[in-house]
Structure formats: structure tokens, C-alpha cells
Amino acid sequence: MDTVSLTIDGRQITVEKGKTVLQAALENGIHVPYYCYHPGISIDGSCRVCIVKIEKMPKLQTSCSTVCAEGMVIETRTPEVVAARAGVFEFLLVNHPLDCPVCDKGGECPLQDFSYTFGPDQSRMEFPRRVFDGEGVKGDVDFGPTLMLNRQRCILCTRCVRFMRDIDGDAQINIIDRGYGSEIATFQEEGVHSLISGNLMDVCPVGAITTRDYRFKSRPWDNPIAADTICTQCSKGCNTTAWIKAKPEWAKGAQLIRFTPRFNHDVNGYWMCDIGRFEYHWIEGDNRLRQPLEREANLGQQPISWQELTSKLGDRLAAAGTSNPEGVRFLLSAHASHEELFLFRRLTEALLGEPNAVSVSWRYQTKSQPAGSKFIVPPVDAPNVNGARAMGLAPGKVGPVDNDAKADVSALRAAVDAGRVSALYVFDPGPEGSLGDVQWIVDARASGRLPLLIVQGVVLSALARAADFVLPGASYVEKEASYTNDQGTLQGATRVIAPPGEAMEDWQILVNLGVALGVPFTYTSAARVRADIAERYANEPGLAGIATLVFGRPVAARNWLQASNPSERWKWDFMFQDMPPVKGHVDPSAVPMPIGAIPLKEVK
Amino acid sequence: MSFEPLLTKHVREPNSFTLDFYLQHEGYDGLRKALAMKPEEVIDLVKASGLRGRGGAGFPTGMKWQFVDKKSPNPKYIACNADESEPGTFKDHLLMERNPHLLIEGCAIGCYAIGAKIAYIYIRGEFFHVQQVLERAIDEAYARGFLGKNVLGSGFDCDVYVHRGAGAYEAGEETALLESLEGKRAQPRNKPPFPAVVGLYGCPTAVNNVETLANVPIILMKGAEWYSKLGPEKNGGPKLFCISGHVKRPGVYEAPMTVTLGELINERAGGVRDGRTLKAVIPGGSSVPILLPTQLDTQASFDGVQKAGSLLGSAGIIVLDDTTCMVWLAENLLHFYRHESCGKCTPCREGTDWLYKILRKIERGAGQMSDLDLLTSVANNIAGKTLCAFGDAAVTPVLTTLKHFRHEYEAHIKEGHCTLPADWRARQGVATHP
Ligand SMILES: Cc1cc2nc3c(=O)[nH]c(=O)nc-3n(C[C@H](O)[C@H](O)[C@H](O)COP(=O)(O)O)c2cc1C
Ligand code: SF4
Ligand code: SF4
Ligand code: FES
Fold first, then answer.
1. What is the pLDDT of residues A511-565, one digit of tens each?
2. Which residue ranges form the domains of chain B, and what is each CATH number?
3. Distance CA A391, CA A388 (A)
4. Which pLDDT value is given to residue A554?
5. Which residue, A322, A551, B349, B425, is most buried by CB atoms nearer than 10 A?
6. Residue among A34, A38, A48, A159 whose CB has most ligand 2 atoms within 8 A, to mutate
7. B344 has a chain A CB within 8 A of its CB
8. Which residues contact A604 (CB under 8 A, 6 or more apart)?
9. CATH number 3.40.50.1110 is the correct assignment for the domain at A293-555
């Protein structure tokens, strides 16, 4: 690695060649504010808050657009820089509405936070603030199906413009008019139509772009818990953070309040798609399976205890297996984790000794995205096709899941349609539809061609409604489970919340069922299952390291920035100590104030 | 005066813009001479002539051409800056309208020198008629082999295109101009990289002002030494001065830069109107500091005006007599800058509007004394903190009028109105902006 050495605020610093002064400062914990800079998109140099003094240069320079050179001497805290920076902050706020109490971003807003630290303590502006067309009416507009735009709050950093141009590949946003009249706009106010639009909320450093999904639902201090996890809605496996809203006992509504992307250079960069971000409501939705069900003649599906279900189901399966081992079949979703796939495999081996008993399926759905997009959402709507391959349950070797990786369940379907299957056990822990077409199963059960249907899953889908036994399992945020994504990378999903009602983690369901069927399972945790996988698949590339895989856990949340953007993470820990922390356990008086920060004026 | 105009000698003749007329007056002989030389020799010649850019900054043109990255595998371009929007500036307009072939010849020589095959003339949006004149002249030049494939049988290909902007002052900033040429918003780029390395469509590009390029054929015809001796040291060659405001004969005047501001204003432009006295001179377009009547012996050269505390800029000399309210002047100019800020940088976008509002308030008699410090502070918070030079340009009218005419601001505040003779507005037909 080529490096350059420079001095910032008297400190000798060595950084990789090509880094900007701002990056060098941030990496070394030196506090320089920024708005238009975002590590994931191109540099603009327009907001001007990152100005610093560089020796031998007459004017202050924007650190975000200055590449480090050998021997550079930089000052970020001299009175000249402090005053100039405060001047820029004053400009940023002269037209900002300061409606923080009703702004979604309030409490986790870089404009608030940097202004507190680096801005002047009062504004000298006496003229009315700028409002866009018609006294704030059109300033606040729909911004496509997923977003809202509030132009009054916009600081015109153009991060959103550059995100659409650089990452989405379809430059739908730009500024219209110029100078003082500049405003963010889309063609004919059509708004943003993109599969990755939610990232615009993340890149916007103020509350100008908000998501409809999260709008007015919570304040940051009402989301005290966050957990780093991964998304399992497709084969990419984006790294995310799940946010949990605290609510009083009597309050209705969901706990899961939002998902935000978490930086992973090799998997998702800084971004995630709208499917993963917005389509999680089923997890706590009304259709969620909360207790085991058994179909009773004339009565339909009725609740049943786990104990009763396990023994009845054990009997039925044992009977079917004994009379005709080839008639007992399993259909697993590629939403099944390694632990679950493994247990199914062991179960069928012990029970039937029949490797053809298991088929794995997933939905394949090409997404429409701009040709030049830098963030492609893959067509495979399941996280673990590689896991199924690793355990020999799906054809192919572990490796990149390419664009024509379609599931093939035609053999199973032919057997069912021919009436050769006496019991079908479907495991469907993903969102409804992610298993692909299942109507043929529903039809076969209705016509009697399929005498016994068992569904272990998470939502009361058409398939679950057709089942004789329903086993409520856990969704991907309710269990510690591991998956190997489409690049062959092994990752773990965190148990963020508990499964609802009587629903259970799926490994546990399978162990219980196995025991009822006389399979000698001794696993007492998912970790034990992983340990066994590691032993039995020691040479399988997609499973390497599974025994020592580290899982996240819900922790006291600080801020979405902390979670989503490593270059911004540091600032929550170091920079805003002149403010009492919104949450967390930092004693502000214990940490020194950053030099160069302008202290808050004492209110008397 | 022994000086014979070189750029504008024939502009009053009815057919001065035609190719036939141009050819009767040694037209395209400079290009012929250039094509007989090696490109590096042309650059050396322009360097030796000391030609400095006429667009505002006075940067040596030969050096700019030398910086163009010749080793780049990409095409090279000349982008001729014909956006001329600086208040008080109207020399490029005259050149293009009355002597278009001189510019076209300059473009062709420039292309040859830097290894380009294409010159784009980026013309100000409002210059519709001038564009038509240019297009016609370009057609004539193609028809006679001065442009196109194999120019004058030399093997050198050269195309010239005119691109009309949408009417924005900021499009005159060289990198904003390139963005606009590419079909984007006219907003400046970060430098480095400089256009000479990464310019139009990412290719090495020389951005030259109209008058700058129009000087190039003259250098080829007259030689570098003759050219550099015409005028003071490092300020060689003929210069166009745009004189406007309260003079008897406003207009474009050509002179070597040995001339003084006083000679230009009093002798060439006839001085201020009878019964009036000179109050101030803005020597280089609205963006530069004011000079006072005591400084009329200042040499009207890049270095001379700079020594006097201002800048020659675009040589737009705005003459102000004693009827001018300096507060109103600042308000009027800030109305312009507020409107023309491209809006990219926070200080320029928000600050110019704020300055304008404060000035308007003072001009209307509603100001307070504390507003004067506020004006200074806001102006200083813009200056030097912006991406392009617009920010510095925009605050100059405020700072320079405050420096020299603070008493007029104070009078507005104390008296609640302008203290110039009550009827001055009516006489001048001046209206404040709403
Ligand atoms: C705000 C702004 C406006 C400008 N407008 C013009 C213009 O209208 N015409 C021009 O020739 N140069 C203009 N310039 C200067 C150009 O950036 C550039 O320096 C010039 O075109 C270089 O040509 P020259 O070297 O031939 O002078 C402007 C600069 C700034 C900062
Ligand atoms: S909407 Fe947000 S991201 Fe876009 S320019 Fe405005 S402040 Fe920046
Ligand atoms: S200084 Fe003004 S005109 Fe220049 S880039 Fe910034 S906002 Fe645009
Ligand atoms: S972060 Fe450097 S100018 Fe905006």
C-alpha cells in the first residue's frame, strides 16, 4: 500500500495514498464536519463546512475535495477556521425551518448535531425564511411511492442527486432553478421510482427526504434497541440494522420499526433495497402464525398444544413412513438456514434413508433496474441457495449464484400429481410467496391426491390454510441462524425479537419432532447444531467457519448513522459530547470537549 | 495618437463581418503562417508575446496552452468563452458581431497549437443575433477551406461549433462553462484537475476568452516581439476597454495598456456629463473594487490597476458621477449576484440573498447602524469560502462601497432616506427592485 504522511493539527498521520484530507482526519478521530461528502458517492465540494487551513494555500480549502499530499500541514482548529466554519453553519440555518420537533430526523440529524458543535450560538437573520411555492404547501410533497420530500428543510447538499446518478443509475433527482431559488425536484414532480429509493433517506443529512414507512411513527429516542443483522429477503444478504421501538405495555403496534443498511464493503456497500427495508410488516402482521394448528373434520384448523401436535404428527409421519417410505416428501424453502436444512436432512436420513425425499425451492423474479445501476437486487428471493447446495439438497456447487438459478421441483410435483405422495412436509419460513408457486400443492390437498399436508412456517398463507398440521416457526429476525449468500459468504442473522405467541425457533421444532420420531437428537441450542454441521461438512467452502460464526445481539441504540455508515460512526462517540447523549451510557462530563467546538451558551 | 486599432479597426464598416472583407485585410494569413510552423512553435510564439487572458484573470495564454496534456490519448478541445455576462462588459459582443472571422481564425490557430480538432464557442444565451452572425461566418470559412477537413491543404482538420447557453452569468466560469457545454447545469467543478488536463467530456481543454483568441492571429502577423512591446512590460498587445456609465460617449475603445484610466474616461469617452463631477470608477466589471477620482492616472493595465488596489478584470470600466447613490449601487449589484449565484455553495447561495435583503432595507431607510457591521461580517463569511470566484466577486460591491462611502450608508440610516438631491432618481429613471 502506497502511503502519504501529513500533519493535521500537529499530529503526524499516515494514510493510504489517494485519500482526501477529510477522510484522513475522520479516520484518525479528528473532528471535521461535512454534509455533501458521503463515502459511498462522488465528491461535490459544495456545502463548504469541511473547510480547513492548508499551509501555503492562501484560501481555506474544502478537506473533502483535497487529496492528501506528502508533507501537507493542515489545521482544523485555528481561530480562522473555527470562525469561517461557524459562518458557513450560520448560512446553512438562515433558511432552515428548524421544525425539529415535528421532523423525523430530529434527534439523529447531522444538521442539528454539527450545528450544535460547530455553528454560532445564535442567528443574526431577521428576514422571513425561504418557503417554496405557496407558503409551505408545495414545499412538502410526495416524492414517489416510498418517500416524502420537504423542500424547506433541504440544505441542497445534492447527496440525493448524486446517489441517484452514481448508484441507482437513473438520475431522477436534480436541482431546478438556481441560486437562492434552487430546489430539489424530479421530472414533472413524478417523484423517485426506484428499487433502492429508501437509501435516499439515509443519505439525506436532514429531514428533507423521509420514508413513508417510518414517517411520524417514532422518534429516535423511542427506539432504544437496535441489532446488527442481515436481510434474508434475497440471495444478496445485505448487512442491516433492525430497530426496535419501545412501547408501553398497553400500546398496540409493531416493535420492529425500521431496517437500515449497515456498511459491508463486500456485500452491500452502504446500501440496501426497498424490499428488505420496507417489506417486513408481515413479521408482526395479523396473518402471522402464533400457535400450532390441526385440521379437524368439520371444524377446520383448530389450535392445539405443541405437545399434542408433536405426538400426533409423529404418529402420522411414522405411520406414513413405515407403509411407504417413498411417499413421504419434504419441500423446503431456500429461506431455510443452514441449521434448519441440516436438521431436515438428518431427520429424513434417519427416518427414510431416502436422499430424494427433500426438494428445495425458491421464487425467482427478475427486478427491473436501470442498466447502469451499481446496486443490483438479485432475482433469487431467498438467502440460502448455497446452503442447500452445500448440503446436497439442491443441484450445483457452492459458489456465485448466477442469474439463472431457478428452482426445479418438477419431479416432486409429478409425484404429488400422480398420487404417489402420501405426506408432504413443507418448510416455509420466508415471506408469503418466497417459496415460488405452491398452488399445485393446495390443489392436490383439496382434491385428496395428497392425503397429508404439514406446513411449518410463519404466515397463514394459502398453503398453510390448506395444511393438516401447521407448525408456527420463527422469521429471520427471531432466531440466530446462518446463511451463505450468493457470493458464497457465510453470514449470521440475529435474534432481534422473540417469536410471537407460541411460535418457536425452527431448529427447536425440528429437534422436538425428531425426538418424537425416535431420532436421537441431542442438540440443546442452535450453536450445537452449527458445531455438528462444522464437523460433518468440514470441507464445504460455503460453511467454513460456521461453528465460530459471531451473531449480533440487540443493544442500546445510539443512532442510525452509527449503524449505517462507519465513516460517520465515530462522530456519535466523539463529537457531540457537548450535548447530553440522547441515549446510551456516556457521561458527557467525563469526556473532554473537542477543541474547536463552540460551547453551548448557558441559558439563565 | 499613433496607435492604430488592430481588433476593431474596421468594425464600423458595413461589411466588416464578411469573409470577403476579411480576406481583403490579410484575413486568415495568421492561420497560414501558423500552419507552416510546428504546433509547439506556435505555443512558444504566443508565450513569447506575453498574451494574457482577456476573460478576467489575466493568466498567460501561452502557458495555458502548454499545460494542455498533449500526451493524453483523448481528443483535445478549445472552449472559447463567449459568455460575456459581467456587468459593464461588452467587448466580445462587438468583436463577434463585427469581426467574427478574427475569432474563428484565432480558434483554428489555437486548435492547431494544442493539437485539437474542435473548438466550441460557448456564447451567452442572450446573444442570439451574434450567434447568427458567427454561424454565417463559420459557414463561409468552411466553404473556402479555412475550416473543415484538411485546412488550406495542410492536413490539419478543424471544426468550429457555436453553442448558445441558456443565459447564466455563472456559465462564464470556465468549469461551469464546460458542464453547460456537456448539457449539464452550469455549476463549477472542483479544481484540480484543471481543464487543461480534465476538461470537456473529460478531455484536455483550453478555455479562452473571445478577445484572447482574437489576439492570436495578430501575434502571428506582427510577431511576438512587436506584440509584447505594444504596451507596458507583461501587459502587451492591444486591449479593448468597455466604458459605460456616466460618460458622454460610452463604448468599446481599443488602446495599448499604457493608456491611463483618465485618458480613457476623459479623452476617449468624453468625460462625465456637463455639470457633473466624477465620483468613482469601477475599472474591471462590477466584481472589482472601486477606484476614486484621485486615481485617474492609474495605468489601465492588468498590473497597473492591481497596484492601484483593484483589478482590470474584464476591462468593463463603469464610470459613476455624483448623482450615484452608492447604497443603491450595491443593492442593484447584489440583486444581480443574488439572482446569478448558481447555488452550489452554501455561503454564496444563502449569503448573497441575505446581503441583498439587508441592502434593500438600508436603501429604503429602514436600516440600523448595526446592519453595517452585519453586512461586513456576512460578506466576509462568503469571501474566500466558496468553490468559484463568484463568491468573492459578489461581496466586492458591498465591501468596496462600505469602505469608501460608509457615510452614505450612515446617512440612509440616520435620515431614513437617500440624501442625494431629491430628484436624482427621477432624473435618472432609476427604480429600485421590488
Ligand atoms: C463568475 C465568473 C464568471 C466569468 N465569466 C466570464 C465570461 O463571461 N467570459 C470570460 O471570458 N471569462 C469569464 N470568467 C473567467 C473564466 O473563468 C476564465 O478565467 C476565462 O474564460 C479564461 O479565459 P482567458 O484566459 O482567455 O481569460 C468568469 C469567471 C467567473 C468566476
Ligand atoms: S433532499 Fe436531502 S440529500 Fe437531497 S439535497 Fe436536500 S438535504 Fe441533500
Ligand atoms: S461561489 Fe456561487 S456561483 Fe460559484 S460555485 Fe459557489 S454557489 Fe456557484
Ligand atoms: S463536505 Fe466538503 S464541501 Fe461539503
1. 999 999 999 999 999 999 999 999 999 999 999 999 999 998 888 776 544 444 4
2. 19-229 (3.40.50.11540), 238-321 (3.10.20.600), 326-428 (1.20.1440.230)
3. 5
4. 87
5. B349
6. A159
7. yes
8. none
9. no
